[in-house]
Batch of 3 targets.
Target 1
Amino acid sequence: MDAVNRAVVEARDEADALRLWLRLFATANRVEGELSRRLRSEFSMTLPRFDLMAQLAKAPEPIALGELSRRLMVTNGNVTGLVDRLVDDGLVERRVAKEDRRSAVVSLTSAGRALFDTMAKAHRGWVEGLFAGLDDASRAALSTLLKEARTSVEEAT
Amino acid sequence: MDAVNRAVVEARDEADALRLWLRLFATANRVEGELSRRLRSEFSMTLPRFDLMAQLAKAPEPIALGELSRRLMVTNGNVTGLVDRLVDDGLVERRVAKEDRRSAVVSLTSAGRALFDTMAKAHRGWVEGLFAGLDDASRAALSTLLKEARTSVEEAT
DNA sequence: GGAAGTTACTTCAAGCCTAAAATAATGGCG
DNA sequence: CGCCATTATTTTAGGCTTGAAGTAACTTCC
């Protein structure tokens, strides 16, 4: 096979959706695993609980469980369990909404807020470190392409 | 803020590692969830089991559990359970390696091979469909950048 | 006001996943 | 040969996740 044909084959290869998906999955998985391990070993914290706390931290007021489940893109039952464990740990407070007694709203306790601030700082540093091998141009390009990909997926479902 | 400064801020924003990671995670999660749901509803199959079968399908001969766990990037104990369930379903065969009695090697049964071929065809189509909104150039660029990202992560760990 | 439908959350069963401890077989090495 | 370290797998405890079924509170509409 000559150089031109090799290039053609490689180009087709790089554009192959299945290969793209495998690469996307592998990369995301690798990062997630690493962050998960570090959260566990440094703070005895899990990534799902950290993510939940992050939602509470950036919200100006308590959030209902349903809203939380939408923002985290997980099922309602899942959120129920995560909040249960965070409440057990004294990091989150659950209260019945006064205007709708079906609804439970949650917020960080002061201990939760303090721990989150510490963890968030470390977490940001870890993510920076993991992507340190990419320059700003690559990061920006990757970010843009991922947004396009996300849009493509949304439209296809 | 003038236009130049807005552009500067936006560029910094797009290059922010944390934002990049959140986007990567969200995209991968969305695709994974969709493929998972379709495998379940169309074939009563889970994504992890499908992935395991894919490894067996492309291997020329039976694979040891340890090798499988490396290729799938999951722990040994995880593979043990997945194989157990696939054996229960008659899709995979587990045998003690003749040259090393500690080692168990697995391969697809003929039923497993047949089911996998059917599923793989559908799966490929689904992935193509999900990424149909990206043209070849975008796909190739995304793939290349993901490879860079993966390398960056590997180097940072 | 009350039946019927909807909405918010919880519970349940099943499966995935990890880290760590336990088993079992191998491979040196004295 | 027999002890010891290593290697391959399994087991266990704990946590995450989903989809489906269940409970309770709210809303609509007559």
Note: Residues 33 and 124 of chain A are 15 Å apart (CA to CA).
Target 2
Amino acid sequence: MARTAGSNGEVTAQAIRETSLALFAREGYAAVSMRQIADRVGVQASSLYRYHANKQQLLVDIMRDHMVQLLEAWEAEDRPEGDPVAALEHFARFHIRYHIKRPDEVFISYMELRSLEEPGLREISRLRGRYETILKDILRRGMDDGVFDIADPHVAAMAILAMITGVNTWYRSGGRLSQARIEDIYVSMVLGSVGCRSEGVVHV
Amino acid sequence: MARTAGSNGEVTAQAIRETSLALFAREGYAAVSMRQIADRVGVQASSLYRYHANKQQLLVDIMRDHMVQLLEAWEAEDRPEGDPVAALEHFARFHIRYHIKRPDEVFISYMELRSLEEPGLREISRLRGRYETILKDILRRGMDDGVFDIADPHVAAMAILAMITGVNTWYRSGGRLSQARIEDIYVSMVLGSVGCRSEGVVHV
Amino acid sequence: MARTAGSNGEVTAQAIRETSLALFAREGYAAVSMRQIADRVGVQASSLYRYHANKQQLLVDIMRDHMVQLLEAWEAEDRPEGDPVAALEHFARFHIRYHIKRPDEVFISYMELRSLEEPGLREISRLRGRYETILKDILRRGMDDGVFDIADPHVAAMAILAMITGVNTWYRSGGRLSQARIEDIYVSMVLGSVGCRSEGVVHV
Amino acid sequence: MARTAGSNGEVTAQAIRETSLALFAREGYAAVSMRQIADRVGVQASSLYRYHANKQQLLVDIMRDHMVQLLEAWEAEDRPEGDPVAALEHFARFHIRYHIKRPDEVFISYMELRSLEEPGLREISRLRGRYETILKDILRRGMDDGVFDIADPHVAAMAILAMITGVNTWYRSGGRLSQARIEDIYVSMVLGSVGCRSEGVVHV
DNA sequence: CATGAATGAGGCTTCATTCAT
DNA sequence: TATGAATGAAGCCTCATTCAT
């Protein structure tokens, strides 16, 4: 057959991205087949290749999109320049908020690095590095100012990002805790982890 | 042909376990083939089926082994009964020490839950639950005693375990930091995350 | 979208023919895809179907074109009627000249017969037969006159045509030998092969 | 399922080689699918990969086998050392005899060079070169002795080999002419093509 | 205890082709 | 005149698995 009446490239492209994102996040890149994605989208597997050169490129495209959007979202934030504590809280809240709304993107972004081959790996790593640098810079500033008790900004950055990303392993929307509540809890733990928590968490 | 001269069941069994562990950790369960494992072990793929009924069972066996050993190791510890702070520090140090020595086991244990099918999933989940309960109990006791500032012991437990497991995403042995140093840093961050850090980290 | 600005049917038609000719000759009909052709021409694959009903028909069209032009070129020659030796030399020179200028057409014409399906096969075979008959008639006349030493005109015709076509397997323009030189050598060998060579080849 | 009762690797290996040889010769490497081969052999397509790493390697293996056997057969011949004319006739007869019995191998060997990718191409080219050198050496010796009237030994070698190989495009066993007769005719033409034919062909 | 030979399902991908626009 | 979006069949190949030996 041929072009389906009323079919539209932009719509299909979006559907492919969303579907693969969800599947990769839930089952892992290697465990998801192109046919599985196509079935969900409602097209033949061969149609996927109009939009992404191959499965690997599909992963790279998804990860690049996410990282670029994440960096753009951070750039668009109204960031407090001075106080490192406020900056860390701001970053933490931003990250958690962004993450809680896009659990799949963030999860893939951290877990499927191992599925990347060159040259995609280098490209995505560079973008990731730029995001991690944001956090590291805040931590370094706080160390210099003496307000953070941190042994190593690299390790601390990694630990904090891992902690937050980990929410995905157990969080299911509609669960016992609201997203706002989870955000509060994690922010409090992040601040505590760098030796910087004056006020207690507001217990409900 | 039959038995290769000098072949030994116990040795092969061990080699299969170690090899699949390493491969599953590095590339993910779905991305590893039985032949890949067999090649590394130095046997034919068909020989793997003497030791594990199928690929899924191989994963279950590895995960069960790990969880059982982890729980046994905890039982074997000389645990301080009273003080929740000491208990948490003890648990954290135990977990980190155990984890740093067995990064692959721990990583698989957390990441490949999604690859488990029933009835293996239920079995492993139950074992995992027993381990998580250890941490949750400590957290609950500390909350009751008023020494921990925790909003929700379940969330806190998850966040702490995720943080520690995350070391795998960046730690490479022989790197800039010694294992002992990393352990210290993480312990300090874990304690801080539950609002409980009087002394600073010892900076090198 | 529709017609690209400045597009022109005749130009595209010619480009398709030339491109597929070159690709079929170099890689073989079965190894060439419609997209490959389209990419080289600079159009979408679907556009090819405006000019040829399908891939098979594209091959038939190319082969028919070639055979028809070859036969017309022969008809247009100023042919010596009488002497079979002169006729053979004339035919040989004509064929070699024509072939050296159109290696792709000739090569396809001989090699891709096996890729033809009915009814195209019958059509092309008939045209080919007409061309072979020209050579066979010359050989037969030479036999009757006693100037050729030939066992079987059919076999001889096939052997001679194969010999000449074979130049393609090694000839590259701009190589050590000029086209004229190659023509001389082959003519000499063709004449020799039917037992009819008084003068030696002019050695350079 | 598993190993078929009574199945034997050597038998299957031979069957795969013979079947692919026949199919590649008749339809061309690119036009033959692995399934087609497997169907004829009576196994699943996947079984082919126990014997050849991939389709390309299957072609290389077939071509290497042929070239090695051809060279060995030539080595095993009782070759007349002195007279170049006798040597050429001997070579021609050997080649034609060998070729008439193995039309498929020879045909593939000449026609599917274009389907070879590196590093197979280099390997096969080297073997082919060794065979061509045999003929070229004879031609050169005859030139030096003044018994052959040849302009260029390389071109002459190519033309002669092409001529002989060409028999495949029309020869079908059980046809009008016996294999012996065809051999005679071609030998006579080969000798003639290098300006060296005293006696006529024996007409039946 | 282990292999060697095989299977059949399914992996990713490319193919020729169609047809609404 | 040409494209852009799609199809469905088929391409090569790998997979987990089986079982006679």
Note: Residues 54-193 of chain A form a domain with the Tetracycline Repressor; domain 2 fold (CATH 1.10.357.10).
Target 3
Amino acid sequence: MKDGPDFTQIAALIGDPARANMLTALMSGMALTATELAQEAGITAQTASGHLSKLEAGGLLRQRKQGRHRYFSLADHDVGLVLEGLMGLAAKNGFLRTRTGPKDPELRQARVCYDHLAGALGVQMLDYATAQGFLIETEDALDITQAGTDFYQSVGIDFQSLKKSKRPLCKSCLDWSMRRTHLAGGLGKAVLDTVFEKGWATRPAGTRIVAFTKSGEMAFLRTFCPET
Amino acid sequence: MKDGPDFTQIAALIGDPARANMLTALMSGMALTATELAQEAGITAQTASGHLSKLEAGGLLRQRKQGRHRYFSLADHDVGLVLEGLMGLAAKNGFLRTRTGPKDPELRQARVCYDHLAGALGVQMLDYATAQGFLIETEDALDITQAGTDFYQSVGIDFQSLKKSKRPLCKSCLDWSMRRTHLAGGLGKAVLDTVFEKGWATRPAGTRIVAFTKSGEMAFLRTFCPET
DNA sequence: AGAATGCTTCGGTTAGGATCGAAGTATGAA
DNA sequence: TTCATACTTCGATCCTAACCGAAGCATTCT
């Protein structure tokens, strides 16, 4: 390993296109598997494996084994902040910033994040749940209380099948556009499934938008954030 | 040029040891010549020249021609902030942070920055001067007013010889430890010269400390910040 | 003017590391 | 068990970019 100021090595990690693509993908806050990240970066799994080891050794990523998958996510919020800072510098110097297309507002409002609901509605739901004491957010975990279990069961979530899966029930997921967390994990997926089953929203092909109908959004809020 | 997220290129610029050494040297806020930066990075002038072009093209550095010298400094405060962020990440992950020796407090109080006074006393002096309307700080320049000229002449600064030099009379210099600016340029040098001539301070060999005596510090403040 | 200094451009060398193919381990599914 | 999937390790290739020597401008000093 070359010597030099310590932060150089961090910057060098970010400075490789393949690794930067991975980090960008993870900025959404969702945990991704090694294979997914490889696709995201346009490289083979072997190469990705090497990159991911380096990123983890450099303290930029956290890894969680889950069955035969390895889920990666940004190590902490500070990593995201530094990446944002770099993006800010890049934006200043004539590099085109991520252009805000016309569908951006919809993406901000509600979108699919892996398999759960992100965007303003997702954040609002988690805010409500923590305020009510249904969920408790700690440093790097999200736990459900008895009251929470009762509540979600009462609105039709099937905890029996959720518990069979080895997937964590609750996980918090950092929402980049809002810099806030929303609900992920098995419960997060179950909620999004409900949204589609009830016909509250549709999913336009080719996008990550969750297009709520007017009445669907009302029903969603009445169900998952009743006292708001 | 490789493609990839725009910020990748910025990170790659920082991720080279030689360039990182240059940036580290510039974190002190002082403008350095290409040759000085080459020495700082331990490379030849030719190589340094190439690096500096890239850093400037990437928007990380600003360049100012001055006679046959080329002075480089960080492009703006945001660059410094991003570098600090990277250093913070590095520090978290077991990399040793810049050790704070016992002489650190003295360095913070008053030190030589190239040829002028930096540290708390330097910052305080510029604060006073701008508050009194002696100096006017703009985006990337520092101008002296008539009142300022009168004031500094009244305390014994010789403007005749200063004007003969082609060196800019006033320059603001970013102070890293304080994230504030202090006075550089010909006037800044003249002030520091005065400090040593009057015997207000000595300069311990091998360090950048400006060691004021108790009475010297009083005299300095009485002279350059009389109403504080 | 000539000499010296500061910096840049050009050309050729070299080393680091990103990449992939092939083969090896681990976990889950049938 | 056998097969499939997810990921890692090993080995070899190849390409980028850092680097320096030499030579060429530009500025300043004498």
Note: The longest strand of chain B covers residues 61-66.
